[in-house]
Amino acid sequence: MLLAELRQQVLETARKLMVDQLVHGSQGNVSAIDRERGLIAITPSASDYTTMTADDITVIDQHEQIIEGRWRPSIETPLHTLFYQRRPDVGAVIHCHAPYASGFAAALRPIPLVLSEGAACIGHEVPVAPFLPSGTAEFAQVVLETIGQGSAAVLGQHGIVACGVDPRRAYSTIVAVEDNARATIFARLLGVEAPPIPDKVAQSLHQWWLDRYRRTAADA
């Protein structure tokens, strides 16, 4: 089986999304790339994560051609492949419908950084992309432009997307986005607008987090 280890990582990440109630059923999609081979492991379209196995993960190239696998890749494949083509620093991409972040998506609003942990992980306010039908090259381009060189974006009236050097890092970003969305909403329910962490402070925390992450990865 091609990319056996990477397929297992993608599967485990997809299952974590369900366990942490960031998706339901077959929602969302996860991918990771083997840069040396130029091949991508991606969750298949409309498959239930509870019954999925590593063998169900589809292997494609960066032009969306199926290299190995019995299922069609996710409908969001154009989004994943565009990230890998344009962002050489990206090793994994995750899209999900996290409930609190999806509230911001429905309102077409960015998600502020109001928690220090989120600021350390993300480093900047999470921008929002305008609504477009998903699964298209146009949608993928708009999302990439919205996220820029960052690691997360709100997808207008849809959900969120995050990227990282590997599935673990991308998943940490998804969780940080959802935590900040939830905290912002809860603060508003208390009648308070949570003050966002200043940009310079967020960037400083993010650099510290990156340095710590690199050391942890090197030591692992």
CATH architecture identity: 3-Layer(aba) Sandwich
CATH superfamily: Class II aldolase/adducin N-terminal domain
Strand order of the largest sheet: 4-3-2-1-5-8-7-6
Percentage of residues assigned to helices: 40-55%
Number of domains: 1
> What is the fold named in CATH at topology level?
L-fuculose-1-phosphate Aldolase
The best one-word shape is: globular
CATH domain class = Alpha Beta
Unreliable residue stretches: none
Helix/strand-derived category reads: alpha+beta
Helix and strand run: HEEEEHEHHEHEEHH
Q: Could you tell me the strand content as a percent range?
A: 15-25%
Count, helices: 7
DSSP summary, beta strand count = 8
Mean pLDDT: 94
Largest sheet: 8 strands, mixed
Radius of gyration over all CA atoms, rounded: 17 Å
Descriptors:
single chain; 220 residues; alpha+beta; L-fuculose-1-phosphate Aldolase; 44% helix
Structure report:
This protein is an alpha+beta fold. It has one domain (4-219): 3-Layer(aba) Sandwich (L-fuculose-1-phosphate Aldolase), CATH 3.40.225. It contains seven helices and eight strands. It has helices at residues 4-19, 77-86, 99-107, 116-122, 137-147, 167-189, 199-219, and strands spanning 29-34, 39-42, 58-61, 66-68, 92-96, 128-129, 152-155, 159-164. Strands 4-3-2-1-5-8-7-6 form an eight-stranded mixed β-sheet, with helices on both faces. Helix 2 (77-86) crosses helix 5 and helix 4 packs across helix 7 (199-219). It is globular, with a radius of gyration of 17 Å. The two termini are 26 Å apart. The model has no long low-confidence stretch (mean pLDDT 94).
